[in-house]
Amino acid sequence: MTSRRNFLSGAGAAMVGASLVSKAAAAAIPEAPQQSSAGTAPPLSPPNGRPYNPVVTLNGWTLPWRMKDGVKEFHLVAEPVVREIAPGMKANLWGYNGQSPGPTIEVVEGDRVRIFVTNKLPEATSVHWHGQFLPNGMDGVAGLNQPAIAPGKTYVYEFVARYAGTFMYHPHADEMAQIGMGMMGSWVTHPKDPRQHAVDRDFVFLLNAYDIEPGGYTPNVNTMLDFNIWTINSRAFPGTDPMVVRKDDRVRIRIGNLSMTNHPFHIHGHRFEITGTDGGWIPPAARWPEVTVDIGVGQMRAIEFNADAPGDWAFHCHKSHHTMNAMGHQVPNMIGVDHRGVARKINDLVPGYMVMGEKGGSMGGMRMPLPENTLPMMDGKGPFGEIEMGGMFTMIKVREGLARGDFRDPGWYRHPAGTVAREWTGAPPETVRAPATPAAPDEPVANVKRGGGHSGH
Ligand SMILES: [Cu+2]
Question: What is the DSSP string of 255-319?
């Protein structure tokens, strides 16, 4: 019997070549642009239709459209893709138009949208437009709202983007395999009036996770809990790009979570307000300041802040095992254990055996021989040494004097003199011990009720 895993790894060979769309019909379908890079594409300024301030998809891109008789036409192609998770590791994923996640779709409130979806996967799929208010038959739940899109077929969806906000798209067919293989994308509906909810820089990305054995290329889609590659838009640090902003910019970051667990995202050096969910905008009077926002499964949170502090600020999931890459599993806690003798004995059996974690889990300074195609648990070089982070970690780089629309990485922050934590080299102080706590005066024993239980507590 063919296991699902075997089935997936044979996906490339099983790809359907013959399109069922005739040549005449194909001419009526807009072209489907492909993206070969996993980098962050510059924002796509709208060439037609109502004006808006475009978003920047972190390690992603926006899908160009064709305007036809006042309708914005897009073409998504569901297909196997090879995604670079970070330099040194590629994964066989499923995605759209050459990448996973698929391209961001950007439209304006009130736009009529027509989306052609071509299925080049070896199994049936569909697209659900998460958060949109649309006719029931356009909602994309295979079997419930429409027939599944068989391999080789093209379906068309059409609806009006009724409300401004941040949404997502993903299959509603064999979801565990298809979402687990990376099929997802962001959707931003901009307000009709570009002055509404205006910010200077507007970022969007999705959170996802994979279970890829070190040395392997294809995610195990039967995994329910034990994921080992935690990604921002299918990139793991140090593969994630920084978000570059100009000092005093108003910044929005829209984060959707299509992984199978929640991610408390934490900002450094700033505080933000949660200004939107996938249900809509939060009225200003209902917002409160935060430095961490928990993004539940299937949720989107838009946060906004004033970037008033220059520097390179960490921005990451606060679950510490989500800022690690593969190989973080089945490693015993050896902190404080002296295993010199043990290591010698094991070395007799396994030459090259290395003791890990005697003084903590740090592997930054050590370079273990890694299997081909995986990532060190914690990696990335910073201006002061190793950044012992992986996974869902990136940076917000706040700089003075950037040009509007300049998103290029400005390099590392140059700290003003005297503003960096430094080693103290003076004399250590005398050891002073706090006086012992005076013993409590004897309790009046006779008054203590013994054996009375604590039911009243
Ligand atoms: Cu997380």
Answer: EEE-SSS-EEEEESS--EEEEEETTEEPPGGG--EESEEEE-TT-EEEEEEE--S-EEEEEEESS
Beta bridge partners of 118: 77, 154
List the one residue out of 173, 252, 272, 264 whose CA is nearest residue 205: 252
Q: What is the pLDDT of residues 78-137, one digit of tens each?
A: 999 999 999 989 999 999 999 999 999 999 999 999 999 999 999 999 999 999 999 999
How far are the Cα atoms of 145, 199, 206 from residue 249, in angstroms, in the given order? 43, 8, 23
Could you tell me which of 387, 91, 76, 410 has the C-alpha nearest to residue 231?
91
DSSP 220-269: -TT-SS---EEEETTB-BTSSPPEEEETT-EEEEEEEE-SSS-EEEEESS
Please say whether the beta carbons of 357 and 342 come within 8 A.
no
Find out whether 407 and 356 touch, Cβ atoms under 8 Å.
Answer: no
CA of 209 to the centre of ligand 1 (A): 9
Output the CA 90–ligand 1 centroid distance in Å.
21
Q: What is the per-residue burial (b if ≥16 Cβ within 10 Å, else e) of 400-413? A: eebeeeebeebeee
Task: Using alpha carbons, select from 48, 198, 17 the residue that is nearest to residue 111.
Answer: 48
User: Which among 190, 148, 146, 193 is positioned nearest to 167, based on CA atoms?
Assistant: 190
Cα-to-centroid distance, 258 and ligand 1 (Å): 11
Neighbours of 194 (CB within 10 A): 13
Residue 249 has pLDDT above 80, yes or no: yes
Compute the distance from residue 292 Cα to the ligand 1 centre, in Å.
Answer: 12
Chain length of the chain: 457
In b/e form, how buried is each residue of 261-271, taking b as 16+ CB within 10 angstroms? Answer: eebebbbebbe
Report the alpha-carbon distance of residue 234 to residue 125 in Å, rounded.
Answer: 20
d(CA 454, CA 457): 5
Mean pLDDT for 332-352 is: 58
State the distance from the centre of ligand 1 to the C-alpha of 300, rounded, in angstroms: 14
* pLDDT for 435 beyond 60: yes
Q: 455: which 2 tokens?
A: 């039911």
188 phi and psi, to 5 degrees? -120, 125
Tell me the CA–centroid distance for residue 323 and ligand 1, in Å: 7
Cα–Cα distance between 224 and 222 in angstroms, integer?
6
Cα–Cα distance for residue pair 210/179, rounded to 1 Å? 10
Distance 23 CA to ligand 1 centre (A): 46
| Residue-wise pLDDT tens digits, 165-187 | 999 999 999 988 999 999 999 99
CA dist 2 to 5, 6, 93, Å? 8, 6, 19
Report which residue type is found at 37.
S
What is the value of pTM for the model shown? 0.82
